[in-house]
Specification:
about 120 residues, mainly alpha, 4 helices
Length: about 120
């Protein structure tokens, strides 16, 4: 009887208080778009560590990750007009994309996925 009550209390506790992992995952996913809308992993957004949507390595995509964006802003590398890192602003300078495509090709031996 005592074990049954303990199991019930633990179950209810998890129901009410939950687990931080869901909260952490939501926070991570919220940073995956221009408008801060959730884009879950596995949806074609991140392939081989590549942000398909923005054509950049995922770990440095200033459009997907607000922490990364803050670092670029802190270092003075920010395009205010297009709201992304200046060094990643393909609108201002389309040739910048070539650098990232070359990095992907060198690492994976193939062209990056198209957006």
């Amino acid at each position: 009887m005592r074990k049954m009550m303990l199991a019930t209390i633990m179950g209810l506790s998890l129901t009410f208080f939950g687990c931080n992992k869901a909260t952490e995952k939501t926070s991570e996913n919220e940073a995956h778009s221009h408008t801060e809308v959730s884009t879950p992993r596995g949806s074609g957004h991140d392939v081989d560590g590549w942000c398909v949507e923005h054509e950049l390595p995922e770990k440095i995509c200033s459009l997907c990750n607000s922490k990364v964006a803050a670092e670029f802003q802190k270092n003075g590398d920010w395009c205010k007009e297009h709201n992304c890192a200046e060094s990643q602003c393909f609108t201002c300078d389309p040739s910048r994309k070539e650098k990232f495509v070359a990095q992907y090709e060198a690492q994976y031996g193939k062209k990056p996925p198209k957006p």
